[in-house]
UniProtKB/TrEMBL annotation:
It comes from Oceanisphaera arctica. Belongs to the UPF0162 family. This is Protein SirB1 N-terminal domain-containing protein. Residues 44-192 form the Protein SirB1 N-terminal domain. InterPro entries: SirB1_N, TPR-like_helical_dom_sf.
């Protein structure tokens, strides 16, 4: 069941760590025990990273560790990696499972790297790039764009290839594509990916919980109301589905989907339920 007190805190003025927001999602879906287990896994990984960086400092005469050293340790001996084989699995979207398996997708691994960079006084920021979440590591010698799925830096040509893969061969890289993302924008991306994974696996109750969280972030978004309506319909909550469809039609009357939803409402069973 959705813990509304968690998501209510997202709208407060007090800044929250992106990792803590991602763990809020876990707690909302699976309860406090799942969150506690995730925090244990996170602490263990953080300690292993600290040990690796300390060893490298000793070898290099106490030079402060760099983000590249952190990435080398994380994606090397510590076993963090992108999950090529089960890319669309919900295990790659839920931070508790990502931390225990040390496998994930770009946005979840990106959140992990951002957290560790912050913990070890390194400057990094997330980029909500089309189709593939990226990171920017900021260093005195110059900024570097990192693919969090592999942990390696990307050339401009490779970034352009990612863009064309997401937007088509005519797409051209613009500065706006690489702008730094706010924490709530990254959280929104995480929730959308998680919701899509649950839908892919026909776990509609969990997908609905993600939709409810997204509506905490954007209460009046007609497209999220439309999507929630489809989930209500899958769960046989026809009256609630109709309410969301009607909201979308009212706010987006020119959208081609509006006419489809009008027919959908007619087909829904909106009569009173018979009690036996």
């Amino acid at each position: 069941m959705l813990k509304t007190n968690i998501s209510d805190g997202w709208s407060s003025d007090e800044p929250r760590s992106l990792m803590m927001l991602a763990l809020d999602v876990v707690e909302s879906l699976y309860g406090l025990k799942a969150r506690d287990q995730a925090e244990v896994s996170l602490f263990a990984l953080e300690q292993e990273v600290a040990e690796q960086l300390q060893n490298q400092q000793k070898e290099q005469l106490q030079e402060p560790p760099t983000a590249q050293q952190l990435l080398s340790a994380l994606y090397g001996s510590l076993g963090v990696a992108g999950d090529w084989e089960r890319f669309f699995s919900t295990d790659n979207c839920l931070m508790n499972r990502v931390l225990s398996r040390r496998r994930g997708i770009p946005v979840t691994l990106g959140i992990l790297v951002l957290y560790l960079c912050e913990r070890f006084d390194m400057r990094a920021e997330g980029i909500c790039f089309p189709g593939h979440f990226l990171l920017r590591i900021k260093a005195p010698e110059g900024d570097v764009v990192i693919d969090p799925f592999t942990g390696r830096p990307l050339s401009r040509n490779e970034i352009e290839q990612l863009l064309r893969g997401a937007r088509g061969n005519l797409a051209r890289l613009k500065p706006n594509h690489l702008k730094a993302a706010e924490s709530l924008d990254i959280l929104t991306r995480l929730l959308n990916v998680t919701k899509a994974s649950f839908i892919h696996h026909k776990k509609f109750s969990q997908a609905l919980a993600c939709s409810q969280l997204l509506l905490k972030l954007k209460p009046d978004c007609p497209f999220e109301r439309r999507d929630r309506g489809f989930l209500f319909e899958q769960l046989d909550c026809d009256r609630l589905a109709a309410d969301d469809f009607e909201f979308f039609i009212e706010h987006c009357p020119e959208d081609p989907v509006a006419d489809v939803l009008k027919a959908q409402i007619v087909a829904l069973d909106l009569g009173p339920k018979t009690l036996h």
